[in-house]
Specification:
Cofactor (chains A, B): Mg(2+)
Pfam families (chains A, B): dsrm, Ribonucleas_3_3
Distance between the termini of chain A: 57 Å
Catalytic activity (chains A, B): Endonucleolytic cleavage to 5'-phosphomonoester
Number of helices of chain A: 11
Organism (chains A, B): Winogradskyella aurantia
Number of strands of chain A: 3
Protein name (chains A, B): Ribonuclease 3
Strand content of chain A: 5-15%
Order of helices and strands of chain A: HHHHHHHHHHEEEH
Structural class of chain A: mainly alpha
CATH architecture of the largest domain in chain A: Orthogonal Bundle
Radius of gyration of chain A: 21 Å
Shape of chain A: globular
Largest sheet of chain A: 3 strands, antiparallel
Oligomer: homodimer
CATH topology of the largest domain in chain A: Ribonuclease iii, N-terminal Endonuclease Domain, Chain A
Amino acid sequence: MSLIRNILNSRSNEDGNFFLNLKEILGYKPKSKSLYIKAFTHRSMNIKDNDGNAINYERLEFVGDAMLSAVIAAYLFEQVPHGDEGYLTKMRSKVVSREHLNELGKELNLIGLVKSKIPKSNFGNNIHGNLFEALVGAIYLDKGYKFCERFIYERVINPHVDIETLEGKVISYKSLLIEWCQKEKNTFDYEVYEDTGRDELKHFSVKLSINNKVVSKARATSKKKAEEKASKRAFFAFQKQIARRT
Amino acid sequence: MSLIRNILNSRSNEDGNFFLNLKEILGYKPKSKSLYIKAFTHRSMNIKDNDGNAINYERLEFVGDAMLSAVIAAYLFEQVPHGDEGYLTKMRSKVVSREHLNELGKELNLIGLVKSKIPKSNFGNNIHGNLFEALVGAIYLDKGYKFCERFIYERVINPHVDIETLEGKVISYKSLLIEWCQKEKNTFDYEVYEDTGRDELKHFSVKLSINNKVVSKARATSKKKAEEKASKRAFFAFQKQIARRT
C-alpha cells in the first residue's frame, strides 16, 4: 500500500488535474483511488507492488471486458426479444468491437490521463479501447455492478447503441432521409457549425432544415455524427411518412 | 402474459413440485415465475408468446453465460494477483468449461425440472450445462446481480473452484496424499459408504484414516469427488508436513 501511496502522491504532484478530469468523466468521486491510477498506468512504467505484481491497466481490462459483456447481454436480451442466442451474440460483438471501444476511449480522451514511459504518439490505436475497458473494470471494483451498469448505459448504450442500426435495418439515417427528400421533391439543408462550448473536446452542432424549416438539431463530437443524430431525430418525426426499407 | 399464465397453470397442475424443487435449489422464492418456467422449457415444446417469439431456455443461456463470466472474472482478478490478462482468461475458461457446467447442472439435477417433448434420454450431455446457464440468467433477470453473484459463489466458486488446482499446482489431492503416505510409511484408508440421507440425489461419504486414525470426512455426489474432498481436507491439515509439488 505504501508503494501505491507513493505513486498516488507523485501522480498528484505531477498531474493535479488527474482526479479532477476523472471525476468529470465518471460523474462521481472515486472511492478507491489506487484502482483508477492502475487503470491509467501503462506497463512501460514498470511499477510493481510490494509482492512483485505489475501495476498497470492490463488486468483491469479483463474485468472491464467481462462487465461490458454482461451489461450488454442483459440489455440485448430485453431489447431484442426475437433474437436467438447466436443472433444476440453477434449483436453484442458489434457493440463491443475493438473499433467501437477505441472510439469510446477516444471520445473521453482517456489517453490524456495515461502515465507512460513511451511517447503517446507511439501507441497503437487499440490503447483507446483498452483504457476504456480498464476504466470500466476499475469502476466495477470500486463501486460495484449497479454503478458500472449505469456508466455503461450513460457512455455506451444510450448515446451509441441503436437496435435498428445494429440489426442492419438502417445503415444511415442521413442517407434514408436524403433519399426520401429527393423522392418527395423536398429541399433539405444540413447547417453545421463548431459548437465546442465549455467542453474540452471539439463539438459540432447541426441544424437540419427541410423545405427551409428547421426540423431537428443535434450536437456531437464529429460533423458526421451530429448529422446522423439530427437525421435520426427527423426520421422519427417523419417516420409515418417515410417508407421504411427493411 | 395470458399465454405465460396458461403455461404456468398447466405446469403447476402437471408438476406441483416444480416451484418447490426450484426453491430448494435457489434458496429463495422466485419473484418472476415466468422466467424460471422459460429456463426449464425445451425448444421441442414449441411454445411462442403473443408476439410470436419462442419461449424456451436458449436465450437465457446467453445472459447466464455472460453473468458467469463477469462474476468469475472479478473473483479471479482478486484471487490471482500475479496473473496477467491471458492467464486469467485461461483460468476462467477452465471454470466455465462445457464439462464443468455440465457437472454443475447434473449435480442440481436440473434435467429433472425440464419440460420437453423429446424423451430426456435423447438429450445430449450438454443439456445439463445449458440448463445451468439458463438458470443463472433467470436469476439475474429476476433478482439482479448481487443475488446472481451469491448463487454463483454458493454453487460454483465455493464448492468447486480451487485456485491451486486451477493453476495446475495440484492435480489431485488424493494422489498427493497417497504419495506422501507411501514416502512417510504411513498407512491410509478411504472408507466409502452410500449416504444419500434426505437428498434426492445419490450421495457418498468418505472417512479418510491415516495410521488408523480418522483425519477427515467428506460427502459428495460421487465416490471420486468425496475422496478428493476428504484428501484436500487432510492435505490442509497436514500441509506443513507435506512437501508441495509446484
